[in-house]
Amino acid sequence: MENKDKGIYKYFSNYIFENIGIVYEEKDYYRLESRLLQMCRRFDVENIQALYSMYLQKITGEMHQTVLDIATNNETYFFRDTKPFVALSEDLLPRILKDRPGSGPINIWCGGCSSGQEPYSILMALSERLSASEIERINITATDISSEILTKAKSGTYTNLEIQRGLPITHLVKYFSDNSNESWTVKKEIRDRISFSEFNLLTGTFPRGKYDIIFCRNVIIYQNRENKNKILSSLFESLTPDGNLFLGSGESLIGTDISYLQENLQGSMTFKKKHKQAA
Amino acid sequence: MRVLVVDDSKHILAMVREMLPDEGYTTLDALNGQEAVDLLKSGEKVDVVLLDWNMPVMDGPTFLEAVRDEKLTDAPILMMTTENKIEKITKAISLGASEYIMKPFTEDILVSKIDFALKQAA
């Protein structure tokens, strides 16, 4: 790679890091290249150099959002890793419902929800276990930084290949409508129960003590140590005192500055705030 | 693990054999439902069945009925077909199919669907 090209990659990797904290090191530039080429096609410019010139002139809102859209890794599928959904629906939620009878809301946040498979999996898993009145108490907020991927998530429409990744066939028949064109859409009553919105985990304002459960899986893995600390501290602030955080199967809080308690729920690790002991 | 693959397309039979990992999987081929019935009646033991819908002599749904009525095997049966409309899927499930692989599919889908069906059956 020529030095002037390196400068261009450095420019875009810095832009991505400053806005969403995802790190593209020099060894990752080949991945960045395919993403920048995607942007060239979208803006109909000839090559990456022309794209760079365009960004140097003026960055419009659309151009800003496009960088964020292409920089995130949207790999996801239904019931990814299986165990967190079992832990949630068979252990955690029944316990919460028992401890807190009545009609008060139970708030779940899915941070970094990508194209929506995770929040829909959560709701399907819960619908299999809970009564209709219990489901009424569940509020699911699903956020992602990419407006483009959120449009897909909200639509709840998936191809034949996407619905075959992790989704049991009985769930397809029960919770999806057949569009008769090799695609399927999550039924409206399920879609309507999830509130999708844009949120930047690095710069957003986190609600304090709101969520009983947070899923933030395979997100911090792309962040450096400083940003990981920042995001995780904010997530813990957003949990209720007894709230549980689910991370991706390859992620942990080891190496961060956070005091936490870890619990193995049906083979899935969850993390809680460690409260200071009263003197 | 012994996988009985029932499909009238030799191309599909070869593709499935190619896609399944060498280690741990052996395939047994049948070109239609009747051949599969005969194999099971001859005492062949299989752990899982992959079943096409449209085949000459005996199609997939008729094979499912034969398995149910004559108790030919307890192995989970996965449809593997281009018949992907919800009515067809519902019919296959009601006849005893435990999972559904829509053609065209990828290697990861094939392997994970087989794993899932075996776990459900356990």
What would you note in describing this structure?
The complex is a heterodimer of chains A (279) and B (122). With 279 residues, chain A is an alpha/beta fold. Chain A has two domains: 3-71, no CATH class; 83-273, Vaccinia Virus protein VP39 (Rossmann fold). Chain A has helices spanning 3-20, 29-43, 48-57, 61-71, 83-99, 117-129, 132-136, 147-155, 160-163, 169-175, 188-191, 225-238; strands spanning 106-111, 138-144, 157-159, 176-178, 183-186, 194-198, 211-215, 239-246, 260-265, 268-273. Chain A is globular. Chain B is an alpha/beta fold. Chain B has a single domain (2-121), classed as Response regulator (Rossmann fold, 3-Layer(aba) Sandwich), CATH 3.40.50. Chain B has helices at residues 10-19, 33-41, 60-70, 86-94, 107-121; strands spanning 2-6, 26-30, 48-51, 77-81, 99-102. Chain B has a five-stranded parallel beta sheet with strand order 2-1-3-4-5, sandwiched between helices. In chain B, helix 4 (86-94) links the parallel strand 4 and strand 5 (99-102). Chain A binds chain B through residues 160-161, 164-166, 168-170, 172-173, 177-178, 180, 182, and chain B through 84-86, 89-90, 93, 98-102, 105-106, 108-109, 112-113, 116, 120.
